[in-house]
């Protein structure tokens, strides 16, 4: 099985989750992990599974204005986060909107604040909807991985992401 993991990350949390998922999936096959800024170069038909994830901003996927907000947060003198190198480039929303109709197997994930999804929203919901609209079959429920109030990945979330990757790999 070959898998492509595409992610968008502002402060590194979603990247860490994507890398952990990839480690889990790698137990049964080849995995390539790329930031969304490099995803246009990929031939999606070459993969058996597409895993797509991004941070939750304002109840859904990021957009240009929320990426600028993340940049402003990272630049504050008292900030405890560092902006990822390509954080202000095109995001998952724009990349998915640029794809032609397709087919294949896919699954979505997100990172979001550690609070009820009703309050935070879930980017994975929108990602999954766009993937289905493009023609992909979703092979599992989307998953959220949690960050704390300081925008740092909660303890054990990377471990949980790796375990989720193993589960995805076993069901392929």
TrEMBL record:
<protein>
    <recommendedName>
        <fullName>Flavodoxin-like domain-containing protein</fullName>
    </recommendedName>
</protein>
<dbReference type="InterPro" id="IPR008254">
    <property type="entry name" value="Flavodoxin/NO_synth"/>
</dbReference>
<dbReference type="GO" id="GO:0010181">
    <property type="term" value="F:FMN binding"/>
</dbReference>
<dbReference type="GO" id="GO:0009055">
    <property type="term" value="F:electron transfer activity"/>
</dbReference>
<dbReference type="InterPro" id="IPR029039">
    <property type="entry name" value="Flavoprotein-like_sf"/>
</dbReference>
<dbReference type="Pfam" id="PF00258">
    <property type="entry name" value="Flavodoxin_1"/>
</dbReference>
<dbReference type="InterPro" id="IPR001226">
    <property type="entry name" value="Flavodoxin_CS"/>
</dbReference>
<feature type="region of interest" description="Disordered">
    <location>
        <begin position="58"/>
        <end position="87"/>
    </location>
</feature>
<feature type="domain" description="Flavodoxin-like">
    <location>
        <begin position="3"/>
        <end position="169"/>
    </location>
</feature>
<feature type="compositionally biased region" description="Basic and acidic residues">
    <location>
        <begin position="61"/>
        <end position="78"/>
    </location>
</feature>
């Amino acid at each position: 099985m070959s898998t492509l993991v595409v992610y968008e990350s502002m402060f590194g949390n979603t990247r860490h989750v994507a890398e952990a998922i990839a480690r889990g999936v790698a137990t049964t096959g080849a995995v390539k992990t790329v930031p969304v800024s490099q995803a246009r170069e990929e031939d999606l038909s070459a993969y058996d599974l597409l895993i797509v994830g991004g941070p939750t901003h304002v109840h859904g996927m990021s957009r240009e204005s929320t990426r600028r907000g993340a940049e402003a947060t990272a630049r504050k003198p008292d900030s405890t986060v560092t902006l990822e190198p390509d954080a202000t480039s095109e995001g998952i929303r724009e990349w998915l909107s640029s794809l032609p109709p397709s087919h294949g197997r896919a699954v979505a994930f997100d990172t979001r604040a550690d609070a009820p999804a009703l309050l935070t929203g879930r980017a994975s919901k929108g990602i999954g909807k766009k993937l289905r609209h493009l023609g992909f079959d979703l092979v599992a429920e989307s998953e959220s991985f949690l960050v704390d109030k300081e925008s740092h990945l909660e303890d054990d979330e990377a471990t949980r992401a790796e375990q989720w990757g193993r589960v995805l790999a076993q069901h392929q």
